[in-house]
Amino acid sequence: MRPGAPVLYTHAPTVMDMRSDDVSEGCPERCLYYIYCAQICRYYDIPSCSVAGTGDSKSNDLQSGIERTAALLSALLAGYNLNYDAAGAINGVLTTSLEGIVADDELYGYLGRVLKGADFSPGTVQESLDVIARVAHTGKSFRTERHTKDRLRQEHWIPSIMDRSRYEAYEQAGKKGMLVHAREKAKKILETHRAIPLVQDANKKIEEIAARSSTTCSPGTSSRTWSSSAGL
């Protein structure tokens, strides 16, 4: 209608489970929908946004992990400009889990590292080959080299709640799985986090907007129906 107008095409395709007539948020066909929708957006050169990462599981279990990861990875690799997700949402986006939010944050970091890829620029490759040549057959380890330590910080993603330890260490630590670590981290955040203060005069401006909204709401209408002059 108006060439050049800012547009972000956002969509959340769903699939009906033919056995129950319920919407399925975690089926593989939904992954395909995202891939095809992304291709349409690229064809028409329209900025795209997916709403992937949801599922049908009622808890943070294996099913939830499979559904969320499959949908998110499909959308990310499909090439969306923006990927929006309801972190911690389970039960078809009808329930939110606090430890699920923490687990999703871990998943986002994991997938973000995949999207980042590896640095294969000529300079980086040559530096790596020089290190190998310097330590090969000398009895030394490349892990003590400064180059390795510097690149490690850039290339190696370190999880916060996933467990990579050997079984003996895992057993000694109480056999805590990822969900337990996520719950502990969620509780710690709730107990210790302090929100960043709003910028100066922000509270005053918010109160002014709220005051205008309360005075422009038409009598007898829902509190969610606001006049266009409300500024919301």
What does this structure look like?
The strands form three sheets. The protein has a three-stranded parallel β-sheet with strand order 1-4-5, with helices on one face. A two-stranded antiparallel ribbon has the order 2-3. A two-stranded antiparallel sheet has the order 6-7. Residues 221-232 have low confidence and may be disordered. The chain has a domain at 7-117. It contains eight helices and seven strands. It is mainly alpha-helical and 232 residues long. The chain has helices at residues 28-44, 62-78, 98-116, 122-135, 146-155, 167-172, 178-192, 202-216, and strands spanning 9-11, 15-17, 22-24, 48-50, 82-83, 89-90, 95-96. α1 packs parallel to α2 (62-78). The radius of gyration is 24 Å and the shape is extended. It is 49% helix and 8% strand. 17% of the residues are buried. α2 links the parallel β4 and β5 (82-83).
Q: Terminal Cα separation, in Å? A: 25 Å
Biggest sheet overview: 3 strands, parallel
The shape is extended
Beta content comes to 5-15%
Helix content range: 40-55%
Q: What are the secondary-structure elements, in order, as H or E?
A: EEEHEHEEEHHHHHH
Number of strands: 7
Q: Catalogue the unreliable spans.
A: 221-232
Class per helix and strand makeup: mainly alpha
Give Rg in angstroms. 24 Å
The strands making up the biggest β-sheet line up spatially as 1-4-5
